[in-house]
Amino acid sequence: MATRRLGLIMHGVTGRMGYNQHLVRSIAAIRADGGVALSNGDRVMPDPILVGRHAEKLESLAKAHGIARWSTDLDAALADPEDELFFDAATTQMRAELLGRALDAGKHVYCEKPVADTLHDALALARKAKASGRKHGVVQDKLFLPGLRKLKLLIDSGYFGRILSVRGEFGYWVFEGDWGWPAQRPSWNYRQADGGGIILDMLCHWRYVLDNLFGPVRALTCLGATHIPERIDEAGHAYRADADDAAYATFELEGGIVAHINSSWCVRVRRDDLVTFQVDGTHGSAVAGLTSCLTQHRVNTPKPVWNPDIPQTIDFYETWEPVPENEAYDNGFRQQWEMFVRHLAEDAPWSYDLVEGAKGVQLAELGLKSWAERRWLDVPELAV
Ligand SMILES: NC(=O)c1ccc[n+]([C@@H]2O[C@H](COP(=O)([O-])OP(=O)(O)OC[C@H]3O[C@@H](n4cnc5c(N)ncnc54)[C@H](O)[C@@H]3O)[C@@H](O)[C@H]2O)c1
User: Fold this and answer.
1) Alpha carbons 197 and 371: distance in angstroms, whole number
2) Class in CATH terms, 3-141+332-357
3) How far is the CA of 149 from the centre of ligand 1 (A)?
């Protein structure tokens, strides 16, 4: 059994996602476990070079995680034929251009979402990737959450009967930074000029979640809001938060399922998790969070009677039953990395390509348009 090297350029690993999920939880963890196992027993060992703007940061990250190579020279990294894969988790606005350069340099590409900040750029990138013959992919991490995996299991088992509707609640309070605690998310998320906004951020996730679990999204209406117009940035300075920080969107799916998803950074949590999806079907319902999934079958459904004159007699939270923990789930970002590495090394199946990434940007762009024009919009097929 042989170990093959995979030369990997990692860009944007000093950021929140690049560092926590991609460098530490995925690539460093895979390296510590001896690489990715292939079907013939061989292993693929990622050999990353960390690329970015800040030499000291890169050097200390590389040292801390036993990585030999780092550089501030992206052109030189792209010119090295020994590094065949380019990965980007830096800011959204740079992504399409960077991935385009990597494809021109003959690299395979993998990246965070969104793949671009406009559908025009996302489509151009997807077309370029298809024409290049290189392999390409985008992170679709929510599909790998244990809660959503359990939900998928319920769907595949036929548990729901006919699915009627999906209610998603995503969000939590992001501190303004003007008292008590600093904000717990980067300030660029709240500035339009820097590629911020919850519609671009979250609707590309909801596209692949809805498409993959419940059916293709055919139409939407979306109302955005900028509830908190001023916030404090990382340096302690007040700034105008002009990007949307909440989105209230309704989707029509093929087959008639209605999905409504609220996404907000201005909501205080009183629910099971930071994201929850309630699915109601003729035979049963379920509520999935990040890790758990609770069910209520038709035979276990309590019979509430509306009576405002007496306090509620049913503890509704008590009337649900968890899907058991029959499987240990690995970190979702790592699972997707391993799938992509197998796709590169042995052509294993892969569905999360840049065309799928473009569909996410399409939904976000239509969401912004629906909000601006105050109307329902159809979601056309993408011609790539
Ligand atoms: N999959 C998910 O659930 C998820 C969650 C959050 C963010 N993201 C995506 O990840 C990306 C990064 O988000 P984040 O929250 O980690 O942000 P962040 O601000 O923590 O990190 C941004 C990174 O980009 C780098 N960067 C910024 N400007 C640059 C420039 N001009 N040249 C080179 N590098 C530059 C920064 O140094 C940093 O490494 C975004 O595209 C975002 O949409 C995905």
Assistant:
1) 13
2) alpha beta
3) 26
The CATH 3.40.50.720 portion of the chain extends over: 3-141+332-357
**Please, which pLDDT band fits residue 119 given cuts at 50, 70 and 90?**
very high
Q: What pLDDT, in 10s, does the model give residues 277-294?
A: 999 999 999 999 999 999
134 contacts: CB under 8 Å, gap ≥ 6: 103, 106, 107, 108, 109
Enumerate the CATH 3.30.360.10 domain ranges in the chain, comma separated: 143-330+362-373
Which amino acids bring their CB within 6 angstroms of ligand 1?
Answer: 12, 14-18, 52-53, 89-92, 94, 112-113, 139, 141, 186, 188, 201
**Mean pLDDT across the chain:** 97
- Separation of CA 18 and ligand 1 centre (Å): 7
Homologous superfamily of 143-330+362-373 in CATH?
Dihydrodipicolinate Reductase; domain 2 (3.30.360.10)
DSSP 105: T
Q: Cβ-count burial of 216 within 10 angstroms (0-12 exposed, 13-18 middle, 19+ buried)? A: middle
Tens of pLDDT, residues 34-67? 999 999 999 999 999 999 999 999 999 999 999 9
- At 225-234, the pLDDT tens digits run 999 999 999 9
Q: Which residues contact 133 (CB under 8 A, 6 or more apart)?
A: none
